[in-house]
Design a protein that fits this description.
- This protein is mostly beta strands and 292 residues long.
- It folds into two domains: 2-164, 2-Layer Sandwich (STM4215-like), CATH 3.30.2000.10; 183-288.
- The protein has four helices and 19 strands.
- The chain has helices at residues 2-17, 99-105, 130-138, 140-145, and strands at 23-33, 36-41, 57-69, 78-92, 110-113, 116-120, 125-127, 150-164, 183-188, 194-198, 205-210, 218-223, 230-237, 241-244, 249-250, 256-257, 262-265, 269-277, 282-288.
- Strands 1, 2, 3, 4, 5, 6, 7 and 8 form an eight-stranded mixed beta sheet that branches. Strands 9-11-13-18-19-15 form a six-stranded mixed beta sheet, covered by helices on one side. Strands 10-12-14-17-16 form a five-stranded mixed beta sheet, with no helix packed on it.
- 30% of the residues are buried.
């Protein structure tokens, strides 16, 4: 499940990016080299993680251990795993000592990717001991440079992940009491001149990640919009472009031309478009963003 776990953590980070500005690193593991301790990303190209003045918030996740659960009710058609995780949060002290509690309160409860769903179980454990955590994660270099300007918190949490195999038709979504976070991520083919976002006739909060960098003008098309309420679109541009939007889009933005339904994006980089619908119109905001 390692690749799927990376996708689940990526979805987690994308959801949190909608609420907090910072730098997520996804899955990581701990290294010790030449008496130096540090975390690094789990990816084809390892990236060393260290506190940085360039970001007010940095996060990464580590795998602690996992337990495979019995799946008798599913007659062996699913692999269920409890994955114990550690979330490390590095934040500027100006964000406040209570920042970790605000972050945890915003964490998603339910996550779904293709072929797998995961729930964040109750019983999160917050550790606010910045000095000890900093020494464990980064060694004495942490104390010398960042102890006064940064807080480091950890959150221990458990993901219960259910892997749906080919014997099943789709994933059966678990039923929970209380409020359920129904944010779902989709990857969108954005290679053509028109990028189509399928809103699936659902009231779920949808997140779309475009799979190519935009180098030329694009037209956004919305389909299956019945019951649609809210979505976030992440995309990246490599040069100045115009994006043509549906006629029902309403924006309050100096870059917006309502007569042509076009927003002009000048600066290359990553963007986030937030969309809310009242059943008739789409109220949209577009801003630069570091997450994709």
């Amino acid at each position: 499940m390692n690749d799927k776990l990376k996708d689940v953590v990526s979805l987690f980070d994308t959801i949190m990016a909608d609420q907090f500005t910072g730098q997520p690193y996804g899955l990581s593991e701990q290294f010790t080299s030449n008496s130096e301790t540090y975390p690094a990303t789990i990816s084809a190209k390892r990236q060393k993680i260290a506190p940085s003045d360039s970001f007010q918030l940095q996060t990464y996740h580590r795998i602690l251990n996992s337990v495979q659960l019995p799946s008798e009710n599913d007659f062996g058609n699913r692999e269920s795993i409890d994955q114990n995780m550690l979330l490390v949060i590095i934040s500027d002290v100006k964000l406040g000592e209570d920042f970790v509690h605000r972050f945890v309160k915003a964490m998603p409860y339910y996550l779904q990717i293709v072929g797998l769903y995961a729930t964040v179980r109750d019983g999160l454990v917050i550790n606010p001991d910045s000095q000890t955590i900093g020494q464990n994660e980064f060694g004495t270099a942490w104390l010398d440079k960042y102890r006064v300007t940064k807080n480091i918190f950890t959150v221990s949490y458990t993901l219960t992940m259910v892997d749906c195999d080919s014997k099943q038709i789709g994933c059966s979504v678990p039923t929970h009491g209380g409020n359920v976070d129904t944010k779902v991520q989709r990857t969108v083919d954005s290679s053509g001149a028109t990028v189509t976002f399928n809103f699936e006739n659902t009231s779920q909060r949808l997140i779309y990640v475009c799979d190519t960098v935009f180098a030329s003008n694009k037209t956004f098309s919305f389909t299956n919009t019945f019951n649609f309420a809210e979505a976030v679109i992440f995309f990246e541009i490599s040069s100045s472009i115009d994006v043509i939007l549906p006629a029902a889009v309403i924006m309050n933005d100096i870059r917006w031309n309502s007569s042509t339904n076009t927003i002009s994006l000048i600066d290359s980089g990553k963007y986030k478009a937030q969309i809310h619908s009242d059943g008739t119109n789409y109220y949209m905001e577009v801003s630069q963003n570091i997450f994709i």
